[in-house]
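ugh ok fine here u go
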Amino acid sequence: MIFGRFLSQPAPAMTTDRLYLRSPDAGDFEAWAALRAVSREHLQPWEPSWADDALTRDGFRRRLIWFDRLRRTDTGAAFFIFARQNNALLGGITLSNLRRGAAQCGEFGYWIGKPYAGQGHMSEAITMMVAWCFAELKLHRLEAATLPENQPSQRLLLRAGFKPEGLMREYLKIDGVWRDHRLYARLVTD
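structure:
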């Protein structure tokens, strides 16, 4: 099974002309903490509430444990997004809630640091991830959810070939409040 072989080891690095994606590791802590700190106001309206120790080494270690659990349990893969020019950490993208069997489906979550927002990096990363998920993981369907007022994220998904599918009521607890989300999906046949 292709997917089982993939998850028995760290996810492969992927590259484009401007970017590379690779699995996060402990050596990324300082760059990650600095980028998340400078981007806090930019990210908080779209994310679950941050723990008090969210930007500490322990907080990062918990995140790495969750990423490793995704891989070990065959339920997803996490990547950090870096600029090839200077190796700067730009953001992250995660494939989670991977369902095999009849579904062959997974969900994307993503974030981009404030200094890099609106520059096309996330569009490039999502395009790369979509191709990898369909070609290497043999998925049939990819999903992503966004808050109804998050127009930049919706435009990003539309550019990446995702189609709107409807409203999911109180889907995720974002910044401490259960919030509706718009569901977008892309099929391998799209």
